[in-house]
Specification:
Elements: H1 4-11, E1 13-21, H2 26-37, E2 42-48, E3 53-59, H3 65-74, E4 78-79
Length: 80
């Protein structure tokens, strides 16, 4: 029997793309990746230097886009 809390959490996964200004090198990519992975509820992060964006899959019951944006901006980058 499925635990309703676990089943509900699995259904709460969402994906957001953050457009990020200020990344200039692979070190920036690693920095952005690291701060996003530390946000509770984030399950995966893909950061592209070329496209200047981050694709983040997260549990919306634990995190939200405002928290992701705050993490990136706290690392010294701008989310546009």
């Amino acid at each position: 029997m499925l635990n309703p809390v676990i089943a509900g959490a699995a259904m709460a996964m969402e994906t957001v793309q953050l457009n990020i200004q200020g990344m200039t090198c692979n070190g920036c990519v690693k920095n952005v990746t690291g701060v996003l992975q530390k946000v509770p509820g984030v399950s995966s992060v893909e950061v592209s230097l070329e496209q200047r964006c981050a694709k983040v899959v997260y549990n919306s019951a634990e995190a939200n886009p405002a928290q992701l944006k705050a993490a990136v901006e706290g690392a010294g980058f701008e989310v546009i």
